[in-house]
Write a structure and sequence with these properties.
Chains A, B: Pfam families: Pyr_redox_2, Pyr_redox_dim, Rhodanese. Chains A, B: Its cofactor is FAD. Two copies of one chain form a homodimer. Chain A has 16 helices and 32 strands. Chain A is an alpha/beta fold. The first copy, chain A, has four domains: 189 residues, FAD/NAD(P)-binding domain; 113 residues, FAD/NAD(P)-binding domain, CATH 3.50.50.60; 114 residues, FAD/NAD(P)-binding domain; 98 residues, Rhodanese-like domain (Oxidized Rhodanese, domain 1, 3-Layer(aba) Sandwich), CATH 3.40.250. In chain A, a hairpin with a 4-residue loop joins strand 4 and strand 5. Chain A is globular, with a radius of gyration of 27 Å. The C terminus of chain A is likely disordered. At the A-B interface, helix 1, helix 3, helix 8, strand 21 and strand 22 of A face helix 1, helix 3, helix 8, strand 21 and strand 22 of B.
């Protein structure tokens, strides 16, 4: 008898699982069911369709050679039967049947399976909000949203994005590009919470503001105002005018079907699966946004839905459902976003997450050009590398800047997967030529500084700590060791200039008893200064992590400033 | 007493070692000696100075903030004494002294050391060539070469590059950009020998030819012709007119000083060192282009000089010379080059190298757009992944194309460092968003196909093998499973069109007994076709690796062709 594989949910994970199951076992009968009318589309592309970066919504539903991935395509090419517009409303695990109900109010019917794959996805996490039903309050999840959103993106009108996460920021850019007045409202005290640490997120926020998008953090939305159409977003901190609202909150796994069938649900609220993507019922697999996975750094179960993970899990679920044997070890929470001309990414744990998980950590901020500094087009990127203090194991990398951030995130992701230490990271044989990186790649420089910190050679303190010391009037010397020209152009109020090149000669003039914090543009000269001071017997010398380039607060602008004053 | 550290050679490795030694041990007396007049310059940037991409040669000798790294800089900032224009002519290991001789014919003098670091670099490997002394036969090694080369790069005149390696190709592009007629002459039967496998190199060669650079492979240079100035390059295959010749052969380690001092020289001809960069004399370290290192895949000693490695080794040698403890595990032979608008890189072993080392391997060719195919600006890249058959361990990656090649090389380098298998590579949590990659990154797609091949599911054969079968008139069906439009535009002569979408319906028309090789644009549909054929009982179905996109031979051009006919 033919193996019957039923897959519920035909987006990334489900479509992949179905196609893979059929390839693995060509004699299996594979049926792919979806409650929507479109299958296997690139939801991640929706903001780019809204901004006209992608001209036709069909491109999001096509293969790279332009064939629409519809039911016909799945039947003809993949040998998979597709039933759209049909929701799975129940699973009878005893009889191995799925209850299905057509959207058009048709009678329910049932389908028998030998192996069932759940790929039911996720839904936006929406608390009850006053007047949520007003027209023009949209989400960015389904392909139908995309066309509606594009229609409503009218130049000159006001848009409010609720949620400053990855999709929220992509959508903010898209609507700005369409000429709208855009405000991003975020409940937490920073943009990209759960993705970046505060000082890295502040670099993104600064860039977004420079592109004329309003940002309101620590701001909870209560509801909406308007008659028929939305006109205002009501928040704890006042009203935001809005002709269009995009809700871009976090997402919740669609685990109800599984829970009602008695399958184990994890503490994360997502369907519990083993490394073979098998649920607590050996005949049922789950993959994609509906299930939990293992974090490769912590070893703990986590919920981190993403299209790239969905594809990998779908492949594993499909192989196993078809009788094969594959495993999926887990994820690193790798994420990336482009907003205007800035790229922001991370892999592994942030400092905030690592501390919350109980790690004793050391961190470094390291900004530098993304390729040989003499090569035209080199653009700055700032890295933040976090390591466990006792073992030197790298726990995570964050990267923000106009340059090639993705490359550093990917290399770090690969290294962290295998438990790389800062020392191992610093010796990676990365591809070097002037168009691609400096002879010492940004990742290697950051790892070297981290090693110096772990070994106690480099004594860095964070910009946040320096700001606090300045604000509280602490008795210390903030030493600017850059050149007089750099110092004149832009600086930190209250700093004393002693260029590194003459520091050895000027040591006599510095008070021995006081704490000295040196800084430069990126922190390398700051570190040199610390070493020079220590060699001369100064016992309390430090440098400021990341230098001026990652200083998230106001800077003193001088005569040579080439950025307009805000 | 103060520790005396003497470093010989003040380019990447030596300059790094000296600065690091001083930072590690601020009370050490560190002396850096170089026979040239310039120190710590970016020799890798020379081609970009020649092409005017980098305006001022000083940029190659400056820190990122524009300070020239000269003797004064090293003294003031690094606390290192620099002696330039001075050659080390002998080492007395008994008395721990180095014999030095000034370039200006001054008397020799000696310097005592407690720790000596050799960073004597490498020299172009030049066989005796007839009339080598003619004017305008240059190399691209020292900063002095750069200015001379730029002077001689006269539009309309003819240049001949001897050597089709990394520097040869960079220089070819630079001279072409200056308006010269450029010919690259390479002794071996492909460009980038020792860097890429032949079919990957042929993609680079095609691109270079399209940019109007002549390429002559399997062509050995005998000598030169001219009176005073060079006019012709004499090769085994005839004469090449040349008003300017650039010699860009491989390099040989400068190990004479070490050998004469009785230090152990490895089988590679470079100075033997341990993981602490220590030579056979415990007081003497070596780093950079003069020493050998360990290949992390084979575990064997290798010679692979590169600026990025020199910096890492210099740091380790400097730390250890100053009394610290650091190790350098080895390299992967990672290399990358941009020529015109194509990027070509690799890490680990090529198929050629892996087979030569005795590995039983499986390989895959996988071309695809470098980001979400619907995202504007997506550009193709072709990956070649090589794995050990018995273990699935990834041995190497090659990547060629106009898109982001460096990112895939770096991620693979990190993974290969830790012995990643194809399965582990395919599950890396790489950064995904449409501006950066498809939901399944190119590396992951390639690893998935490789897994399918290792498991015996996917039966790929190389374009080279298909070409041979065509040429020899073998009895097989070459099945083009692309769309009729794709087929009409460009194809392989002798192929039969059966689009994948109707293959299931057309099975009756295909002969069961014969070998069938399916192909498409990139090979994914080709693989689907193999699976469909197998499911229908065809026992000898295969697909062609890499599809049309990595077919290195002539293509049948059709009416829809948008590339100009050659």
């Amino acid at each position: 008898m033919k193996l019957r594989v039923v897959v519920i949910g035909a987006n990334a994970a489900g479509a992949k699982a179905a196609a893979k199951a059929k390839r693995m076992n060509p004699h299996a009968e594979v049926t792919l069911i979806d409650r929507g009318n479109f299958i296997s589309y690139g939801a991640c592309g929706i903001p780019y369709f809204v901004s006209d970066t992608v001209a036709d919504v069909k491109e999001l539903m096509s293969t790279p050679v332009g064939v629409i991935r519809d039911a016909n395509f799945f039947k003809k090419v993949k040998g998979v039967d597709v039933i759209t517009g049909t929701e799975a409303i129940g699973i009878d695990r005893q009889t191995k049947t799925v209850q299905l109900l057509g959207n058009e109010g048709s009678k329910s019917f049932s389908l028998e399976y030998d192996r069932l794959v759940l790929a039911t996805g996720s839904s936006p996490t929406l608390p009850p909000l006053k007047n949520r039903e007003l027209v023009n309050i949209l989400t960015v999840k389904a392909i139908e949203d995309a066309e509606l959103l594009k229609e409503q993106a009218v130049a000159g009108k006001a848009a409010c994005i609720v949620g400053g996460g990855l999709i929220g920021l992509e959508t903010a850019e898209a609507l700005k590009k369409k000429g709208m007045k855009v405000t991003v409202v975020e409940m937490r005290d920073q943009l990209l919470p759960g993705v970046l640490d505060p000082e890295m997120a502040s670099l993104v926020e600064k860039h977004i503001r420079q592109n004329d998008v309003e940002v309101m953090t620590s701001c909870r939305v209560i509801g909406f105002d308007g008659t028929l159409e939305v006109r205002k977003v009501l928040t704890e901190r006042g009203e935001v005018p809005a002709d269009l609202v995009v809700l871009a909150p976090g997402v919740t796994p669609n685990a109800k079907l599984a829970a009602e069938a008695g399958l184990e649900i994890g503490a994360t609220g997502a369907i519990a699966v083993d490394a073979r993507m098998r649920t607590s019922d050996p005949a049922i697999y789950a993959c994609g946004d509906c299930c939990e996975t293992t974090h490769l750094v912590t070893g703990r179960k986590t919920y981190f839905p993403l299209g790239s993970t969905a594809n990998k899990q779908g492949r594993v679920a499909g192989i196993n459902a078809a009788g094969g044997d594959a495993t999926f070890a887990g994820i690193l929470g790798t994420s990336i976003v482009r907003v205007f001309s800035i790229n922001a990414g991370r892999t592994g744990l942030t400092e905030t997450e690592a501390r919350a998980q109980g790690y004793d950590i050391e961190a470094v901020l390291s900004p530098a050009p993304d390729r040989a500094h003499f090569f035209p087009g080199a653009k700055p990127i700032a890295l933040k590398l976090v390591a466990e203090r006792s073992t030197g194991r790298v726990l995570g990398l964050q990267a923000v800047g106009e340059g090639a951030v993705d490359k550093r995130v990917d290399a770090a992701a690969a290294a962290i997967t295998f438990g790389a230490t800062a020392d191992q990271l610093s010796h990676l044989d990365l591809a070097y030529a002037p168009p691609y990186s400096a002879a010492m790649d940004n990742l290697i420089v950051a790892a070297d500084i981290l090693k110096n910190k772990l070994a106690g050679h480099a004594k860095g303190i964070s910009p946040r700590k320096v700001k606090q010391m300045l604000d509280e009037g602490d008795d210390f010397i903030l030493l600017d060791v850059r050149s007089p020209a750099e110092h004149a152009e832009v600086g930190i109020e209250g700093a004393t200039l002693v260029p590194l090149g003459i520091l050895r000669e000027k040591l006599e003039g510095l008070p021995r008893g006081r704490e000295i914090v040196a800084f430069c543009k990126v922190s390398l000269r700051g570190y040199e200064a610390q070493k020079i001071l220590e060699a001369a017997g100064f016992e309390n010398a430090k440098f400021m992590d990341g230098g001026i380039m990652t200083w998230p607060y106001e800077l003193r602008r001088g005569a040579l400033a080439n950025e307009p004053e805000k």
